[in-house]
Design a protein that fits this description.
Blueprint: H1 2-13, E1 18-21, E2 39-42, H2 47-58, H3 62-68, H4 77-86, H5 88-100, H6 108-117, H7 120-133, H8 139-147, H9 154-174
Antiparallel strand pairs: 1-2
């Protein structure tokens, strides 16, 4: 399990796609021949996707939005469920757009597959993964969360980020 956390952490720091394990147990909404695999992949969000997500995110009441953003002290499950159910269709739209993350619209079947397979907690986790990818949760805030499940300490996380920036500068100067 620690190996999985380290890999997730590394992928986040290096801006690699996040692979979130996901159980697509209800396959009734899947088109014939489609296999969603065993995870949901969230790539770094493009500017185009941000323009699609922004008005949807702004449709959520600020106090509700602040409550569903991941924090060290999560909301009690009943309150979280209440907020997510209040914005259920909107949140599914945000998830579909954020996961699809392409110029085209997400396929209609994908929305149905998510609705058939997501729990309230899944919606919360996927939403926060997308928010992290658009930069809503600054990297420094994420250190606190990552430390609680990671064998890496704060200095190692920051060093990994700085190494990435250094590698990117070296790569750009080589061109």
């Amino acid at each position: 399990m620690i190996k999985e956390f380290v890999q997730l952490e590394t992928n986040t720091i290096t801006e690699q796609p996040l692979k979130i394990p996901f159980d697509f147990s209800n396959r009734e909404s899947l088109p014939s021949g489609k296999d969603p695999g065993d995870c949901i992949v969230i790539s770094p969000i493009t500017v185009r996707t941000w323009f699609k997500l922004k008005p949807l995110l702004l449709s959520i009441n600020k106090s509700d939005f602040d409550k569903i953003v991941a924090k060290e002290d999560p909301l009690p499950e009943a309150e979280l469920t209440g907020i997510i159910s209040k914005y259920d269709d909107l949140l599914i739209d945000i998830l579909c757009i954020g996961i699809h993350n392409k110029k085209s619209d997400p396929p209609a079947w994908f929305r149905e597959v998510l609705k058939d397979n997501c729990t309230w907690k899944d919606i919360y986790i996927l939403l926060n993964a997308i928010l992290f990818r658009i930069g809503y949760n600054p990297f420094c805030k994420s250190i606190t969360t990552v430390q609680s499940v990671s064998p890496m300490d704060e200095a190692e996380i920051i060093a990994a980020r700085r190494n990435l920036e250094s590698w990117m500068k070296t790569d750009q100067s080589a061109e």
